[in-house]
Amino acid sequence: MSRSRHYDIVIVGGGLAGLAMAAGMADLPLRVALVEAGPVSAECPEPGEGVDSYDPRVSAITLASQQLLAQVGAWEAIATARICHYTDMQVWDAEGTGEVHFQADEVNADNLGHIVENRLVLAALADQVHNATNIRLYDNAPVAGMSYAGAQATLTLESGDSLEADLLVAADGANSRVRQWADFATREWSYKQKALVTTVKMSASHAYTAWQRFLPTGPLAFLPLGATDAPDRYCSIVWSADTAYAEQLLSLDDEAFKKALGQAFEGRLGEVEAASRRFSFPLQQRHAVDYVKPGIALVGDAAHSIHPLAGQGINLGFKDVAALQEEIRRALARDEALGSLAVLQRYQRRRKGDNLAAMAAMDGFKRLFGETALPVRWLRNTGMKLVNQTAPLKRQLIRKAMGF
Ligand SMILES: Cc1cc2nc3c(=O)[nH]c(=O)nc-3n(C[C@H](O)[C@H](O)[C@H](O)COP(=O)(O)OP(=O)(O)OC[C@H]3O[C@@H](n4cnc5c(N)ncnc54)[C@H](O)[C@@H]3O)c2cc1C
């Protein structure tokens, strides 16, 4: 028999953004529902050893994101798992001598962030949600449809149950159905690139550095991973490449791929000793024109998806979550309706400009480094050297990379 229920807040999507949103509501006097199409598990497999023991999806978590995860009670569990801090970021141009080297020391910090397997963050957040007495979790429960009239959203689950919300938070990812059902306009374009993701074991130390080499076909990142057998020699690879080249890389046999990867990285970390299975993700830039309508707010990739070249996607998503949580608390303190446009527009004002600036920067980098004309190459190499030598500018960029 299908049922109808009413909640103060319904969050659709139990990815990183949706789970963080829910976990931050655990101490509030609100009835909250979290609806996720797949399973939501607080269990994480034992770390194991070797390249196949890692989640292929990892994130560079900035200090700002770490603060949000600590605030919602999830960081403690993440910090004791297999994660890796990075103290340096090194970025260089394949077509010249331009190089930028950021160091935590330059801003008197211990590190610039951590590389964390997504499944660890998901499990730590899920644990908080499972333990919250005011959150009803609907997992393995795809939302099949939605009606939206007069600021009131009603969701229909595949099971036939329907859920009404005073505030509906759409955290259902880049292809958000909620965003489409509620008729939010977006601006989007394809980069005509795919991101190839794999885990590798190198013969030399990753030196606790996030490395990125800009090739004309797209950026190649080596992100340091923690390990028990060879603590500083595993890396997660994010190799963004024009679609045809990415397909070619995906089709190579293991030996040929390891060779191509080593060459593309100029052998900076020695030989590629082992590589796990390869996965790929199409890359698209998409930005909702508005993040809010009466009774609905978009967060995370549902509001914006960007090129992974600076590892900012979920870091921006966590900032959305932090801002919306603060506005919900403020609305409760002032006895304002949670779904009112005045409350939600405060959230949008805080986030849209920052997200837009990050997206414009990623797009600019992508175009700048895709350019092979000599004057542009000269200009960007000179620019990189200048940045590297200008201490105040560099400190400002480092703080930005840390999420502040
Ligand atoms: C290769 C690659 C590398 C990246 N590296 C980084 C990095 O280093 N740092 C960083 O900050 N970001 C990175 N990103 C971006 C980051 O992964 C995303 O920004 C982030 O995963 C988005 O999280 P989300 O919760 O908004 O959406 P998602 O992770 O897409 O979660 C959406 C959830 O909604 C659920 N859902 C969808 N539809 C429905 C429905 N109808 N009913 C119920 N549930 C539904 C889905 O099952 C899913 O669980 C990277 C991205 C790529 C592609």
| Helix percentage range | 25-40%
Percent range for β-strand residues: 25-35%
Taking all Cα atoms into account, the compactness measure Rg is 22 Å
Number of helices: 11
Model regions low in confidence, pLDDT < 50 over at least 5 residues? none
What is the architecture at the second tier of CATH? 3-Layer(bba) Sandwich
CATH third-level topology = FAD/NAD(P)-binding domain
CATH class reads: Alpha Beta
Q: What is the CA–CA distance across the termini?
A: 50 Å
The coarse silhouette is globular
Number of strands: 20
**Overall number of domains:** 1
Structural class, judged by helices and strands? alpha+beta
CATH superfamily descriptor: FAD/NAD(P)-binding domain
Report the bound ligands by name, code or SMILES.
flavin-adenine dinucleotide
Give the overall pLDDT as a whole number: 92
The description of the largest β-sheet is: 9 strands, mixed
Give an overview of the whole structure:
This protein has 404 residues and is an alpha+beta fold. It has a single domain, classed as FAD/NAD(P)-binding domain (3-Layer(bba) Sandwich). It contains 11 helices and 20 strands. The strands form 3 sheets. Strands 5, 6, 12, 13, 14, 15, 16, 17 and 20 form a 9-stranded mixed beta sheet that branches. Strands 1, 2, 8, 9, 10, 11, 18 and 19 form an 8-stranded mixed beta sheet that branches. A 3-stranded antiparallel beta sheet has the order 3-7-4. Helix 1 packs parallel to helix 4 and helix 8 packs antiparallel against helix 9. The longest helix is centred in the C-terminal third of the chain and has 30 residues. It is globular, with a radius of gyration of 22 Å. The N and C termini lie far apart (50 Å). The structure holds flavin-adenine dinucleotide.
